[in-house]
Amino acid sequence: GAGVSQTPSNKVTEKGKYVELRCDPISGHTALYWYRQSLGQGPEFLIYFQGTGAADDSGLPNDRFFAVRPEGSVSTLKIQRTERGDSAVYLCASSLGSQGRREQFFGPGTRLTVL
Amino acid sequence: AQSVAQPEDQVNVAEGNPLTVKCTYSVSGNPYLFWYVQYPNRGLQFLLKYITGDNLVKGSYGFEAEFNKSQTSFHLKKPSALVSDSALYFCAVRSDSGNTPLVFGKGTRLSVIA
After folding, report:
1. pLDDT score of A66
2. pLDDT above 90 as % of chain B
3. Which of B99, B100, B103 to probe the A interface (max A CBs under 10 A)?
4. What distance in Å separates residue A14's CA from the closest CA in chain B?
5. pLDDT per position as a tens digit, A49-61
6. Percentage helix, strand, coil, to 5, in chain A?
7. pLDDT class of A1 with cuts at 50, 70, 90
Protein backbone atom coordinates (compact mmCIF):
# COMPACT_ATOMS: atom_id res chain seq x y z
CA GLY A 1 0.00 0.00 0.00
CA ALA A 2 0.94 3.65 -0.22
CA GLY A 3 3.33 4.91 2.39
CA VAL A 4 3.75 8.37 3.88
CA SER A 5 4.35 10.96 1.19
CA GLN A 6 5.86 14.44 1.56
CA THR A 7 5.97 17.34 -0.83
CA PRO A 8 8.04 18.99 -2.03
CA SER A 9 11.07 16.72 -1.82
CA ASN A 10 13.33 19.77 -1.95
CA LYS A 11 12.65 23.40 -1.15
CA VAL A 12 15.10 26.25 -1.55
CA THR A 13 14.04 29.61 -0.19
CA GLU A 14 15.53 32.91 0.84
CA LYS A 15 15.95 34.13 4.38
CA GLY A 16 12.79 35.81 5.61
CA LYS A 17 10.40 33.97 3.29
CA TYR A 18 7.44 31.79 4.29
CA VAL A 19 7.34 28.07 3.44
CA GLU A 20 4.80 25.27 3.69
CA LEU A 21 5.69 21.60 3.81
CA ARG A 22 3.03 18.97 3.22
CA CYS A 23 2.61 15.47 4.63
CA ASP A 24 0.15 12.84 3.46
CA PRO A 25 0.04 10.01 6.03
CA ILE A 26 -0.87 6.39 5.54
CA SER A 27 -4.62 6.04 5.16
CA GLY A 28 -6.30 5.26 8.46
CA HIS A 29 -3.40 6.38 10.62
CA THR A 30 -4.75 8.71 13.28
CA ALA A 31 -1.43 9.86 14.71
CA LEU A 32 0.90 12.12 12.73
CA TYR A 33 4.31 13.39 13.76
CA TRP A 34 6.75 16.01 12.45
CA TYR A 35 10.49 15.77 13.04
CA ARG A 36 13.51 17.80 11.97
CA GLN A 37 16.80 16.11 11.08
CA SER A 38 19.97 18.14 10.84
CA LEU A 39 23.14 16.79 9.25
CA GLY A 40 24.80 14.15 11.41
CA GLN A 41 21.94 14.04 13.88
CA GLY A 42 18.94 11.87 14.55
CA PRO A 43 15.41 13.13 14.01
CA GLU A 44 14.20 15.64 16.61
CA PHE A 45 10.54 15.76 17.55
CA LEU A 46 8.60 18.88 16.64
CA ILE A 47 4.87 18.24 16.98
CA TYR A 48 2.35 15.43 17.13
CA PHE A 49 -1.31 15.27 16.09
CA GLN A 50 -3.93 12.85 17.25
CA GLY A 51 -6.73 13.36 14.76
CA THR A 52 -7.13 17.05 14.02
CA GLY A 53 -5.68 18.42 17.23
CA ALA A 54 -2.08 19.06 18.15
CA ALA A 55 -1.62 16.81 21.17
CA ASP A 56 1.97 17.85 21.84
CA ASP A 57 3.77 20.78 20.24
CA SER A 58 6.56 20.96 22.81
CA GLY A 59 9.25 20.40 20.18
CA LEU A 60 8.47 23.44 18.04
CA PRO A 61 11.53 25.67 18.41
CA ASN A 62 9.70 29.01 18.40
CA ASP A 63 6.53 30.75 17.26
CA ARG A 64 7.71 30.96 13.66
CA PHE A 65 6.81 27.27 13.35
CA PHE A 66 3.20 26.16 13.12
CA ALA A 67 1.43 23.03 11.88
CA VAL A 68 -2.14 22.13 11.05
CA ARG A 69 -4.12 19.01 10.26
CA PRO A 70 -7.63 20.38 9.60
CA GLU A 71 -9.35 17.17 8.48
CA GLY A 72 -7.34 14.64 10.43
CA SER A 73 -5.40 13.43 7.43
CA VAL A 74 -3.00 15.69 5.48
CA SER A 75 -0.83 17.98 7.58
CA THR A 76 1.06 21.14 6.69
CA LEU A 77 4.09 22.46 8.56
CA LYS A 78 4.41 26.21 8.16
CA ILE A 79 7.54 28.22 8.81
CA GLN A 80 7.41 32.02 8.84
CA ARG A 81 10.35 34.37 8.37
CA THR A 82 12.73 31.53 7.61
CA GLU A 83 16.28 31.68 8.93
CA ARG A 84 19.41 29.91 7.69
CA GLY A 85 19.35 27.77 10.84
CA ASP A 86 16.03 26.30 9.72
CA SER A 87 17.83 24.42 6.95
CA ALA A 88 17.33 20.71 7.59
CA VAL A 89 15.38 17.69 6.43
CA TYR A 90 11.83 17.76 7.75
CA LEU A 91 10.38 14.31 8.29
CA CYS A 92 6.77 13.31 8.72
CA ALA A 93 5.63 10.03 10.27
CA SER A 94 2.30 8.41 10.99
CA SER A 95 1.10 5.54 13.15
CA LEU A 96 -2.07 3.56 13.62
CA GLY A 97 -2.59 5.04 17.07
CA SER A 98 -0.77 7.24 19.50
CA GLN A 99 0.14 4.56 21.98
CA GLY A 100 3.85 4.51 22.69
CA ARG A 101 4.21 0.91 21.59
CA ARG A 102 3.17 1.70 18.02
CA GLU A 103 5.94 1.98 15.44
CA GLN A 104 5.93 5.07 13.29
CA PHE A 105 6.18 4.99 9.51
CA PHE A 106 8.26 7.75 7.98
CA GLY A 107 8.04 9.66 4.74
CA PRO A 108 11.11 10.43 2.59
CA GLY A 109 11.37 13.95 3.98
CA THR A 110 11.55 17.48 2.60
CA ARG A 111 15.01 18.98 2.38
CA LEU A 112 14.70 22.68 3.21
CA THR A 113 17.55 25.02 2.30
CA VAL A 114 17.38 28.63 3.43
CA LEU A 115 19.84 30.85 1.59
CA ALA B 1 14.22 13.27 30.49
CA GLN B 2 14.71 10.61 27.88
CA SER B 3 17.93 10.11 25.98
CA VAL B 4 19.64 7.65 23.67
CA ALA B 5 23.36 7.16 23.17
CA GLN B 6 24.88 5.47 20.15
CA PRO B 7 28.56 5.51 21.11
CA GLU B 8 29.92 4.62 17.65
CA ASP B 9 29.58 7.04 14.75
CA GLN B 10 30.83 4.36 12.36
CA VAL B 11 31.00 0.56 12.41
CA ASN B 12 32.94 -1.36 9.77
CA VAL B 13 32.49 -5.10 9.31
CA ALA B 14 33.45 -7.63 6.68
CA GLU B 15 30.72 -9.31 4.70
CA GLY B 16 29.70 -12.58 6.34
CA ASN B 17 30.89 -11.54 9.79
CA PRO B 18 28.52 -10.84 12.68
CA LEU B 19 27.67 -7.20 13.33
CA THR B 20 26.67 -5.27 16.44
CA VAL B 21 25.46 -1.67 16.61
CA LYS B 22 25.33 -0.38 20.16
CA CYS B 23 22.60 1.60 21.88
CA THR B 24 22.07 2.64 25.49
CA TYR B 25 19.13 4.63 26.79
CA SER B 26 17.80 6.58 29.72
CA VAL B 27 14.08 6.86 30.41
CA SER B 28 11.72 7.30 33.34
CA GLY B 29 9.40 4.36 33.62
CA ASN B 30 9.77 1.36 31.36
CA PRO B 31 11.15 1.79 27.85
CA TYR B 32 9.69 1.17 24.46
CA LEU B 33 12.73 0.72 22.21
CA PHE B 34 12.97 0.88 18.43
CA TRP B 35 15.56 0.47 15.70
CA TYR B 36 15.23 2.23 12.35
CA VAL B 37 17.43 2.12 9.25
CA GLN B 38 17.96 4.96 6.78
CA TYR B 39 19.22 4.33 3.27
CA PRO B 40 20.49 7.24 1.13
CA ASN B 41 17.68 9.49 -0.14
CA ARG B 42 15.06 7.36 1.54
CA GLY B 43 13.00 7.70 4.69
CA LEU B 44 13.59 5.84 7.92
CA GLN B 45 12.42 2.24 7.82
CA PHE B 46 11.28 0.40 10.93
CA LEU B 47 13.38 -2.67 11.76
CA LEU B 48 12.18 -3.93 15.12
CA LYS B 49 10.92 -2.93 18.55
CA TYR B 50 10.95 -4.05 22.15
CA ILE B 51 7.77 -3.49 24.12
CA THR B 52 7.68 -6.20 26.75
CA GLY B 53 8.33 -9.90 27.16
CA ASP B 54 11.20 -11.78 25.58
CA ASN B 55 14.44 -9.81 25.75
CA LEU B 56 15.55 -11.01 22.31
CA VAL B 57 13.55 -9.36 19.56
CA LYS B 58 13.69 -10.46 15.93
CA GLY B 59 12.97 -8.05 13.11
CA SER B 60 13.26 -7.44 9.40
CA TYR B 61 16.13 -8.55 7.13
CA GLY B 62 17.57 -10.98 9.71
CA PHE B 63 18.25 -8.32 12.34
CA GLU B 64 17.68 -8.88 16.03
CA ALA B 65 18.21 -6.86 19.19
CA GLU B 66 18.69 -7.77 22.81
CA PHE B 67 17.09 -5.74 25.59
CA ASN B 68 19.21 -5.63 28.74
CA LYS B 69 17.45 -3.80 31.55
CA SER B 70 20.35 -3.82 34.01
CA GLN B 71 22.71 -2.31 31.43
CA THR B 72 19.98 -0.12 29.89
CA SER B 73 21.06 -1.31 26.46
CA PHE B 74 19.36 -2.42 23.27
CA HIS B 75 22.12 -3.47 20.88
CA LEU B 76 21.27 -4.36 17.29
CA LYS B 77 22.80 -7.56 15.92
CA LYS B 78 22.95 -9.69 12.82
CA PRO B 79 24.76 -13.05 12.58
CA SER B 80 26.08 -12.54 9.05
CA ALA B 81 26.40 -9.07 7.49
CA LEU B 82 25.59 -8.30 3.86
CA VAL B 83 26.99 -5.45 1.76
CA SER B 84 23.38 -4.31 1.31
CA ASP B 85 23.13 -3.76 5.09
CA SER B 86 25.35 -0.69 4.69
CA ALA B 87 23.23 2.23 5.90
CA LEU B 88 22.59 4.60 8.80
CA TYR B 89 21.01 3.01 11.86
CA PHE B 90 19.05 4.86 14.53
CA CYS B 91 18.00 3.68 17.97
CA ALA B 92 14.99 5.38 19.57
CA VAL B 93 13.21 5.25 22.92
CA ARG B 94 10.04 6.49 24.53
CA SER B 95 8.60 5.90 27.98
CA ASP B 96 5.63 3.66 28.64
CA SER B 97 4.26 6.27 31.05
CA GLY B 98 2.48 9.22 29.52
CA ASN B 99 2.51 10.14 25.87
CA THR B 100 6.13 11.19 25.57
CA PRO B 101 7.82 11.84 22.23
CA LEU B 102 10.09 9.34 20.54
CA VAL B 103 13.72 10.30 21.16
CA PHE B 104 16.39 9.24 18.65
CA GLY B 105 20.10 8.68 18.94
CA LYS B 106 22.55 10.41 16.59
CA GLY B 107 22.84 7.35 14.41
CA THR B 108 25.58 4.86 13.54
CA ARG B 109 26.82 4.43 10.01
CA LEU B 110 27.35 0.76 9.20
CA SER B 111 29.71 -0.10 6.38
CA VAL B 112 29.89 -3.73 5.27
CA ILE B 113 32.94 -4.45 3.16
CA ALA B 114 32.97 -7.20 0.56
Report:
1. 96
2. 85
3. B99
4. 24
5. 998 998 899 999 9
6. 5, 50, 50
7. low
Check A101 against B42: CB less than 8 A apart: no
Interface of B with A (CB under 8 A): 4, 32, 34, 36, 41-46, 49, 51, 90, 92, 94-96, 99-107
B41, B100, B102 ranked by CB distance to A104: nearest: B102
In a mutagenesis test of the A interface, which of B44, B67, B96, B106 is the best target, namely the one with the most A β-carbons within 10 Å? Answer: B44
* Average pLDDT of the segment spanning B7-28: 97
Give, in order, the Cα–Cα distances in Å from B8 to each of A27, B11, B57, B106.
Answer: 37, 7, 22, 9
**A10-A15-A19 Cα angle (round to 5):** 45
- For B76-112, the pLDDT digits (tens) are 999 999 999 999 999 999 998 877 899 999 999 999 9
- Give me Rg for the CA atoms of chain A: 13
Q: At residue B60, what are phi and psi to the nearest 5 degrees? A: -75, 155
Q: Which of B45, B19, B48 is nearest to B33 (CA)?
A: B48
CA A7 to mean position of chain CA atoms = 11
